[in-house]
Amino acid sequence: MSTEHSQSTELTAAATHRDVAGPLPERFENPGLEPHRPRLTDEDPGAARRATRQVAALFGVSVLGTIGVIVAHVAFPPGDSVASMRTSNLLLGAALFLSLIGIGTAAVHWAKTLMSDHEVVEARHPQKSSPEVREGAIAVLREGAEDSGIARRGVLKGAMISALALFPLGLAVPLIGEVGGDWNVGAFRHTMWKRGTRLTRDPSGTPIKAEDVTVGSAFHVIPDGLREQEHWIEEKAKAVVLMVRLDPADLKSEQGEGWSYDGIVAFSKICTHVGCPVALYEQQTHHLLCPCHQSTFDIADGARVVFGPASRPLPQLPITVDDEGYLVAQSDFHEPIGPSYWERLK
User: Fold this and answer.
1) Over pLDDT 70: what percentage of the chain?
2) N or C, which end of the chain is more exposed by having fewer CB within 10 Å?
3) Bridge partners for 301 per DSSP
């Protein structure tokens, strides 16, 4: 009753308001554009000159950032240590940020302070263009160029051209510098894993016994002796493994006969799509998810792809146990790890 009473009161109030204000109009008149409010740079030549210098300075920041990218790439290469990689990435990222933020901020400041800000209404017209329309479009482009003041402000023109011309070098130089690097894609066909190599915890390097792996648990695994390698980071990037123990009754299939041990299976952590680390395990469904592009693999069925852009299963590492009960590899992976590349057919 209270709800009906409230609705009735609202309807009565609305009817009373309509009777007082009169009937609603069938259409509203177009109020048009608000009056143009000039900016400081429109009225004060000094302010316009200051804005010009500010925009030129921002383009200069972009130029310095691009030069910084080149210097960082040449003077601070990534190297083999974690510290050198961190320093190189930090300097490259900071310099590239300055290069991009300089161009972007300069363009926005130029548009807000110096370019024409008069609002223009353009009537709708048929999509088919006539010669007159094309000529009109060219005239509008010319008018826009005149409004931007680029022809009258040579400093801005030079600063913009310099920033835009140099900016691609910040991307091209690091790429060109890698042309002479190691392009041997066959290196992905082999990893540190070999017959008898123990599976150890990442990052401690502690060997793992089969009896310590409970059903449903997942281990991030690296090969024993990894830190003793000269280029151990590169070797780790290829050899990292995710190991899970399933109930043997839930194991539908594996990629090779006898490649698992009492429900314990081990697969490469490198996604077969673009190489992201696959490490999100869902115990109930036995699904392994790649966080980058959501490729999903069923580890109970040989890491078969069940969703996402990956085109092939994760390579399986054949495992068994040694005389002391430690989990060991039977061999290396039987297929290249990682994403597909131009020499791989699948």
Assistant:
1) 84
2) N
3) 253
Q: Which two tokens stand for residue 112?
A: 């807000």
Lowest mean pLDDT among 129-143, 287-301, 308-322: 129-143
The number of beta carbons lying within 10 Å of the beta carbon of residue 209 is: 14
Unique residue bearing structure tokens 């003793």: 228
| Helix, strand, coil % in the chain, rounded to nearest 5 | 45, 15, 40
DSSP SS3 for 316: strand
Element (H, E) at 19: helix 2-21
Cβ–Cβ under 8 Å, residues 244 and 261? no
Residue 222 makes CB contacts below 8 A (sequence gap 6+) with 200, 201, 202, 203, 205, 236, 239, 240, 241
Torsion of CA 129, 134, 136, 139, to 10 degrees: 160
Q: Which of 13-22, 46-55, 325-334 has the lowest mean pLDDT?
A: 13-22
Pinpoint the alpha helices (H) of 76-130: 82-113
**Considering only the top CATH level, what class is 186-329?**
mainly beta
Q: Which residue has the tokens 């009960």?
A: 325
Q: How many CB atoms lie within 10 A of CB 120?
A: 8
- Rounded-to-integer distance, Cα 263 and Cα 93, Å: 45
pTM score over 0.85: no
